[in-house]
C-alpha cells in the first residue's frame, strides 16, 4: 500500500537567508519568553533546512556526500543559532531574562553564506520530527550531556533533520563542525555514497568517538545502520560509534539481523519529550507553564489525550468510538485550570506550527472552528468545548449540514491558496491508487476505466489550496441546534502522507464518500462551493476512487501496525473494509 511521502518544497536560498535576517531583526519584539524562544528555535530550524538543501545540491553535483563551501558556511550559521537556542532554553527553565542573542556573530555568519555562489533553487524537505512528532532539539542536547566528556567527538548528522540536530549536539559538546550525510538506496537497505575527500577525513578520525544523529529509527533503522557500516568499513571500532536517536525503542520489523545486533549493544542515550517537557525539573520547561496566562496558574492539571484517548472525553460509550491510527496521532492534552479547560495540540515547531496557527485563527474568525487562543513552542491552545457533542447526522439535518459543508469548503478554496508544488501530482495520485487497488482488489480492478490515465488529460489544471483532507464524520462537532464546527482542520494537508495540498475537488470527492451523499446532495454541495471557487465536476468524479484507494491504504496499514491492540485493530479493519466496499462499487458500477 502507498500512503506516506516526504513533504518537499522548492526554495530560493537567498530568500531563506533574507527571512532569517528579518527574523533576527524582529526577535526582540516578541512577547512572552516562551514565544521568543519559539521564534528563535524557528530560525534555527529554518537554517537547518537550508543547510540540508545546500548539502543535497552539493552532493548531487559532486557524486556523493562530501565537504562543500556552501554547506560548511550554512552549518556554521546553524551552530550559532543552535547555541543561541540552547542558551534561551536554559533561561526559560531558570525563569530569567533570556540572554541577548549575539546578533553580530549571527549576521556575520549570514553574510558569509550570502557571499557564496548559491544555487538558484534547492529542495527543502520537511523535518518530520519537528513538524509531526513533537521532537524537540533541546532533547538532543540533554542526551549529548549523558555522553563521556573525554576524547575527541566527531558528530555526523543524517539529513534531513540531522543537519540541525547534529549542530545542537556539536554545540553542546564543544565539538567541531558536524558532517552530514544522506543514505541512499532502498528504504530498508540504505548505504552511504561518499566522496574520496570525506572518506579520507573519516579515516583520519577513526579513533574519535563518532556520534550519529537522526530521528527514528523507523521500520528498518537502515539509515543509522548505513552510517555505522561505512564507519566500520573505514576503520572505526564498533564501541566508538554512538547513536543519538529520537526514541529509545528497538529497530523495527524490517531491520537486518546485523543491524539489530549492533543496535542492541550500542550506546544510544535518548531524552524523550515526556522527560524534557512533561516531567521537567524546571517549572519554566513544563507545558503547563507555557499557558499559565490562559489557565490562571501554573498548577493547572494536564491530562494526556493522545493516541485516541480523546475519545473517552467525547463519547459516552466506548462502543461508539471511531477508529484511531494511534501511532500517527499528534500529541494532545487537556489543560484544566481556574480559567477553564483547554485543548493543547502539537501542530509543529517552526514554520509548520506558525502556518497551522494562522489557519486556525482564520478558520475560527470565519466561524468554522473553535477559537485559536495561542501558539506556544509547537502547541496550539483552543478552548475545550464541553457543550458540544460528536456529529449525529439525522435525516432531517442532512440538507442544512450539506449547506454548512459547502460553505466551509468554499471558504477554504477562496481563502487558503497553496503553492503549486505543495501536494502530490495527479500522476502520483493515480499511481498510488493503482497500487492500493491491485493489492486489495486485484489487478483487474486496478485496470478499471475509472483509473484510466487517458481520463486525466481532460481535467482542468489544479488550483491547489490547503485542503482539509480529513472530512470524516468524527471530525465534526454539533453545537446547539443546527450548528456545526470542524474540530480539526489546520494541518492535514501538511501531514506525513503523500497527498498534501490539492484542488478543492479532493475535499468534494471526500465529502461525497464520507457522508455517502445522494446525487441531489452532491449537486447541492458542488453548487455552493462553485459560488466561491472554480471547480471542475469531472475532476471531482475522477478523484473519488483515488480518495477511496488512499483511505483504504491508510486503514489497512494502520490495522497491521496495531497487532498489540486488538480492539483498535478491529475498528481499523472495519473502516478499511468499508472503504474497500465503496471502492469496489465505484470501480465496477
- Weakly predicted, low-confidence segments: none
Note the beta-strand portion.
5-15%
Mind telling me the C-alpha Rg? 25 Å
Q: What's the CATH architecture name of the largest domain?
A: 3-Layer(aba) Sandwich
Q: What is the third-level CATH name, the topology of the largest domain?
A: Rossmann fold
Can you tell me the CATH class of the largest domain? Answer: Alpha Beta
What is the typical, i.e. mean, pLDDT?
A: 94
Number of domains: 3
Task: Give the CA-CA distance, first to last residue.
Answer: 23 Å
Strand count, sense and barrel status of the largest sheet are: 5 strands, antiparallel
**Globular, elongated, flat, extended or rod-shaped: what is the shape?**
globular
Structural class by SSE content: alpha+beta
Helix content: 40-55%
Number of strands: 16
Could you give the order of strands across the largest sheet? Answer: 7-8-9-11-10
Number of helices: 21
Could you describe the 3D structure shown?
Strands 7-8-9-11-10 form a five-stranded antiparallel beta sheet. Strands 4-3-5-6 form a four-stranded parallel beta sheet, with helices on both faces. By secondary structure, it is an alpha+beta fold. The chain has helices spanning about 15-25, 35-60, 70-95, 105-115, 130, 135-145, 160-175, 195-205, 220-235, 255-265, 275-280, 285-290, 290-295, 350-365, 400-415, 425-440, 445, 505-515, 520-530, 535-560, 565-589, and strands at about 10, 120-125, 155-160, 180, 210-215, 240-245, 300-305, 330-335, 340-345, 375, 380-385, 390, 465, 475-480, 485, 500-505.
Amino acid at each position: 500500500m502507498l500512503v506516506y511521502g516526504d513533504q518537499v518544497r522548492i526554495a530560493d536560498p537567498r530568500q531563506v537567508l533574507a527571512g532569517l535576517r528579518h527574523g533576527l531583526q524582529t526577535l526582540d519584539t516578541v512577547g512572552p519568553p516562551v514565544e521568543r524562544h519559539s521564534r528563535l528555535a524557528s530560525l534555527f530550524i529554518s537554517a537547518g533546512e537550508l543547510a540540508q538543501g545546500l548539502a543535497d545540491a552539493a552532493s548531487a553535483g559532486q557524486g556523493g556526500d562530501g565537504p562543500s563551501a556552501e554547506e560548511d558556511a550554512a552549518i556554521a550559521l546553524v551552530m550559532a543559532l543552535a547555541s543561541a537556542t540552547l542558551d534561551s532554553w536554559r533561561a526559560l527553565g531558570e525563569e530569567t531574562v533570556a540572554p541577548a542573542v549575539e546578533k553580530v556573530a549571527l549576521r556575520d555568519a549570514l553574510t558569509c553564506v550570502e557571499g557564496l555562489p548559491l544555487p538558484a533553487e534547492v529542495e527543502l524537505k520537511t523535518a518530520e520530527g519537528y513538524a509531526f512528532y513533537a521532537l524537540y532539539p533541546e532533547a538532543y542536547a540533554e542526551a549529548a550531556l549523558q555522553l563521556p566528556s573525554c576524547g575527541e567527538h566527531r558528530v555526523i548528522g543524517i539529513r534531513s533533520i540531522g543537519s540541525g540536530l547534529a549542530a545542537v549536539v556539536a554545540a553542546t559538546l564543544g565539538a567541531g563542525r558536524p558532517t552530514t550525510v544522506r543514505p541512499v538506496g532502498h528504504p530498508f537497505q540504505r548505504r552511504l555514497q561518499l566522496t574520496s575527500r570525506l572518506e579520507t577525513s573519516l579515516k583520519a578520525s577513526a579513533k574519535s568517538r563518532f556520534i550519529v544523529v537522526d530521528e527514528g529509527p523507523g521500520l528498518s533503522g537502515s539509515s543509522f545502520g548505513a552510517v555505522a557500516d561505512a564507519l566500520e568499513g573505514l576503520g572505526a571500532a564498533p564501541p566508538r560509534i554512538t547513536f543519538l536517536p529520537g526514541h529509545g525503542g528497538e529497530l523495527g520489523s524490517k531491520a537486518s539481523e546485523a543491524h539489530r545486533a549492533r543496535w542492541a549493544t550500542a550506546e544510544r542515550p535518548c531524552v524523550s519529550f515526556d522527560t524534557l517537557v512533561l516531567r521537567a525539573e524546571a517549572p519554566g520547561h513544563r507545558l503547563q507553564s507555557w499557558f499559565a496566562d490562559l489557565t490562571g496558574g501554573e498548577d493547572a492539571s494536564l491530562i494526556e489525550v493522545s493516541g485516541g484517548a480523546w475519545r473517552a472525553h467525547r463519547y459516552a460509550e466506548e462502543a461508539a468510538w471511531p477508529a484511531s491510527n494511534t501511532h500517527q496521532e499528534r500529541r494532545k492534552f487537556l489543560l484544566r485550570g481556574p480559567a477553564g479547560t483547554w485543548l493543547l495540540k502539537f501542530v509543529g515547531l517552526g514554520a509548520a506550527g506558525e502556518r497551522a496557527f494562522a489557519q486556525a485563527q482564520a478558520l475560527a474568525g470565519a466561524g468554522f472552528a473553535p477559537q485559536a487562543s495561542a501558539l506556544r513552542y509547537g502547541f496550539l491552545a483552543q478552548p475545550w468545548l464541553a457543550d458540544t457533542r460528536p456529529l449525529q447526522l439525522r435525516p432531517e439535518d442532512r440538507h442544512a449540514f450539506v449547506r454548512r459543508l459547502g460553505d466551509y469548503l468554499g471558504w477554504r478554496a477562496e481563502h487558503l491558496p497553496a503553492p503549486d508544488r505543495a501536494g502530490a501530482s495527479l500522476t502520483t495520485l493515480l499511481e498510488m491508487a493503482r497500487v492500493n487497488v491491485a493489492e486489495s482488489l486485484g489487478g483487474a480492478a486496478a485496470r478499471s476505466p475509472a483509473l484510466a490515465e487517458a481520463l486525466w488529460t481532460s481535467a482542468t489544471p489544479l488550483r491547489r489550496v490547503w485542503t482539509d483532507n480529513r472530512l470524516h464524520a468524527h471530525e465534526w462537532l454539533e453545537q446547539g441546534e443546527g450548528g456545526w464546527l470542524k474540530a480539526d482542520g489546520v494541518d492535514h494537508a501538511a501531514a506525513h502522507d503523500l497527498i498534501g495540498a490539492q484542488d478543492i475537488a479532493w475535499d468534494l470527492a471526500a465529502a461525497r464518500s464520507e457522508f455517502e451523499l445522494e446525487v441531489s446532495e452532491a449537486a447541492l454541495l458542488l453548487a455552493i462551493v462553485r459560488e466561491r471557487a472554480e471547480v471542475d465536476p469531472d475532476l471531482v468524479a475522477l478523484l473519488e476512487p483515488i480518495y477511496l484507494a488512499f483511505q483504504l491504504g491508510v486503514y489497512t496499514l494502520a490495522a497491521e501496525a496495531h497487532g498489540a491492540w486488538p480492539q483498535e485493530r478491529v475498528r481499523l479493519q472495519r473502516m478499511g473494509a468499508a472503504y474497500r466496499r465503496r471502492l469496489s462499487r465505484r470501480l465496477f458500477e
